[in-house]
Amino acid sequence: MSTTLTSKCTLAGASRGAVPRRLAPAAKFATLLAERLWTWLRRARERRDLGMLGDHMLKDIGVTRADVEFETQKHFWMP
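The chain above was modelled as a monomer; its predicted structure follows.
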């Protein structure tokens, strides 16, 4: 009788579909990295869009052109 890796894990008490413990930190890191990249992309897009607004639209939202220039000069990683 041969025992497969799956049956060994089941015998050891691991449930089916469970993430091995040593992969959990890597999965957590990947999730954090993806979230950070998404934030950076969103921030860059929002700053680019803000810079494209005309003076009329800026006046409607209560932002000056100087505020826009200050914000759009920031690097994408800066909040």
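The mean pLDDT is 84.
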